[in-house]
Structures are given as C-alpha cells and as structure tokens.
Amino acid sequence: MGYAVLHLEKAKGADSGMSAHIERTIQPKNADPKRTHLNRELIQFPEGVRNRTEAIQHRLNTAGLTHKIGKNQVQAIRIVLTGTHADMEQIEKNGRLDKWCQDNVDWLRKTYGADNVVSAVLHMDEETPHLHATIVPIVMGERKKQKKELAVKKRYRTKAPAPRLCADEVMSRANLIRYQDTYAEQMAAYRLQRGIKGSEAQHISTHEYYRSLIAQGEVLQANITQLLAKADEAQRTIAEAAQAKQELARIKSAIKREQRHACMVVAECEQTRLKAKAETKTEELKNSATKTATAALNGINSLLGGNKVNRLEKENKELRNEVEDLNRQIERLHADMQKMKDDHAREMNRANEQHQQEVNNLKRILEKAYQWFPSFKRFLSMERECLQCGFSEEQTDKLLHGHTINYSGCLHSNEYRRNALADNVSAQVIRDEKRNLFLHINEMPITQWFKEQFGIGQEQRRGIKM
C-alpha cells in the first residue's frame, strides 16, 4: 500500500514560468516528447480564456475583490497531486486513471471552492502520472485581527463579509494538516494512504530539480570524457596487442620455415651418412679382400711396385675422415635445432604472458566501465545488435544518439537466420522507463517486424485452422 502525495506551493506573480512547464511550451529534460500528446487539461476555461495565466487573471477580475492586489501578494497556489510510482502504474494499468483524475478534481473543488480551481493538468509524459492544479486563494470573511487591533475599542459597525485574496490563510498550518487528512480519505479507494505526520522529508522544487539535473549532467559528461579517454587507451592497447600478435605470427612462420629447412638438411645429412656408411662397409670388405690377397700379391708387388696399394689405403683413410666430419656436422645441426626450439618456446611463453596481461587489463577497464555506467553495457549490446542486423557504423552511431534514420536494403535476423528486404523503412532505438534499449522498425519492435516479413504469425494461424 503506497502513499498519496499532496504538495502545495505559493506562486510568485503571474507564475508564467510554471505555466510554461505545465503547458509544455518549453519541453523539460525529464519529459518524453513522444508521450506529451497524452497530457490533458481537466478544467474547462471560461469563454475567451486561452491558458492558465489568463485563467488566474480572469478569476481575480471576477471575484469581486474590494482591496487592491499588492505587488508582492501571492495570486495563485500550485498543487501537485500524485501517488507512489508503483501504485500509479497499477492505477493506470487497471484502467482507473480517469476515475482517479475526476476524484482529484472533485476534492479540489470541494476543498478550495469550484470557482477558485482555475486549472488542473494531467501529465503523462514524465515517469509517474501526476496532476498540476492551480487555485486562486480567495476566501470569505474578515481577516484575523492582530493583538494591537484587538486591544483597540471598536468605534464602527462590522462590515459584511467580502471576498479577499489571502494565501496565508489557505496555507495555514491547521489547513495544511486538514488537506493531507481529507486527501488521504479521498485516495483510500486507490489503496493510497496518508504520509507520516511530522515527517522531516522536504519537497524539491522544480527549479532545484532542474539545477540538480544540470549538475548531474556535468558530472556525467566529465565521467564520459574520462571513460572515452580510457576507451582510447584501451583501443591503443588492443592495437598494440594485435600488432604483437601479427609479429608473433610472423616469428612463428619464420621458425616453421627454419624447421622445414633444418629437417631437409638433417634428411640430406642422414642420407649422406647412410651412403657413407654403406661405402665404408664396402671399403672394409675391399680392405679385407685386399689383406687376404696381400700375401698372394707380395711376390707380384715386389715386381710391380707398391704404389697402387698405398694409394688405395690413402683414399680409404680420407673417406673415413669425411664420414667422421659428416657425423660431427650432424651433431652440430641437432644442437642448433634444439637451441632454436628452446628459443622459440621462450618467445612464445613471453608473448602469451604479455597478451594475457593486456587482455586482463582490458577486462578490468570494461568491468569498471560497467560499474560506473550501467547503460554503457546496454549501448554496447545495442551497437552489436544494430551491426549484426546490417546497419553501417555511421547509421548505428546515429541510432544510438536517438536519431531516426531511413534505411533501404536487407536486414538480417539471427533468430531466423534469414534476411528480410527493407524498402525505405524508418529505424530508431527506443529507451523505456527502465532505460532499456530496443530497436524498432517502422515504430514496432524489430522481432515483430521480422515475424511480419517472414509471415511467422500467418503460418501459425494457418496451422491452427488446419
């Protein structure tokens, strides 16, 4: 069960500033222009009266006042009538808002006099539905005497009661308490109760409210500037990480090329070693045969000379030396390959650690951005949705700034994995009362628009009939 809200405030002069706010000749920042057409005036103005300011002056002119209105005298009292946000939403949802408005007007006329209630406007374009009522504080009867006047003996006849303008009497402490009590009784039918008596809660005036909005906007702008700077820094870090990743890929490619070359060299060396080994065995067989035949050839050798045998032994020795050199080269190649593998592993580990550190920094920055600006995540999600649908980055930027754009082309649906032809449609990002963002096409949610384009609802209806 919520609370009934009743606030009275004295107006200064003709109160033209509040008239501009109530009649929306100046659009306030906390109002939704798309809902302003739902606002309505509940009091019919007299003939020839066009607005609230003229209605106040008309009442003053026709009230029969006998005293001249002072320059600083209060000519009107502003009254705001509403209830707790959740309860007002429920009243509107249940279709009782018109009855609530009529009960408020009846209470105003009964409490302050029907002629004194010159205006009552329902505002539906702000967060909570509420009434702005205006009364002219005209009362009947003699004014209260001061102590000095009571001490003086009357020497004249008492005058007949006459209407007079007196805001202090209308807003006396006793009357203000009575207003809260009777208004709560009138609103009991809507489950709205009276506020706590003696509460120290203070009402914020419209001027103070907008001044606080400006201050909050400046703080928000400063935070956005700081966030954009951090976003630029994050983009630079991402670019450096991408460049490092490209450099790492280049190093990997070079290492792979070197590995392939080393493998080819090792294969050639292995082939050469096997060939040399085979030749060595062949030579050993030859040497064995040579030694066997040496004894038989000793006699002949003495006749022919020993030059040929010595030459063969020398060539055999040279071949053995070449084989040993090849084996040493192969061992050096194996050592070089192992060193290259170790260097590559160390470089990979260092690059992975640096990349992971940069990713963690970016995640930390994004988490802070989500905490400082809850709507930032919603904007990122909406940006991704717009780009996936097929809008360009420039069109997406306009949509996120609240602009309506015309679009022709194809729009992609991730849900149905299909494209729909869009011929000069209007696209806009809508923000609801909870500041959630929704993409609308031709003033309807994009999911509903896709269903109409693909005939999803029609197919379901045909299936039911069948």
Give the helix level as a range of percent. Answer: 55-70%
Low-pLDDT ranges: none
N-end to C-end Cα span: 49 Å
Q: Any idea what the shape is? A: rod-shaped
Strand arrangement in the largest pleated sheet: 2-4-5-3-1-8
Q: What is the radius of gyration computed over CA atoms, rounded to a whole number of angstroms?
A: 47 Å
The DSSP helix count reads 13
The biggest beta sheet is recorded as: 6 strands, mixed
Helix and strand pattern? EHEHEHHEEEHEHHEHHHHEEEEHH
The total strand number stands at: 12
User: What is the average of the pLDDT values?
Assistant: 83
Task: Summarize this structure briefly.
This protein is of the alpha+beta class. Helices cover 59% and strands 14% of the residues.
Task: Outline the structure in words.
This protein has helices at 16-22, 52-62, 85-93, 97-112, 147-151, 167-170, 173-187, 206-304, 307-372, 374-389, 393-400, 446-454, 456-465, and strands at residues 2-10, 40-41, 77-83, 117-123, 130-135, 138-139, 164-165, 192-193, 405-413, 418-431, 437-441, 444-445. It contains 13 helices and twelve strands. Helix content is 59%, strand content 14%. Helix 9 (307-372) packs across helix 10 (374-389). The mean pLDDT is 83. The protein is of the alpha+beta class and 466 residues long. The strands form three sheets. It has a six-stranded mixed beta sheet, sandwiched between helices.
How does the SSE layout of this entry go?
Elements: E1 2-10, H1 16-22, E2 40-41, H2 52-62, E3 77-83, H3 85-93, H4 97-112, E4 117-123, E5 130-135, E6 138-139, H5 147-151, E7 164-165, H6 167-170, H7 173-187, E8 192-193, H8 206-304, H9 307-372, H10 374-389, H11 393-400, E9 405-413, E10 418-431, E11 437-441, E12 444-445, H12 446-454, H13 456-465
Parallel strand pairs: 1-8
Antiparallel strand pairs: 1-3, 2-4, 3-5, 4-5, 6-7, 9-10, 10-11, 11-12
Helix pairs in contact: 4-7, 8-9, 9-10, 10-11
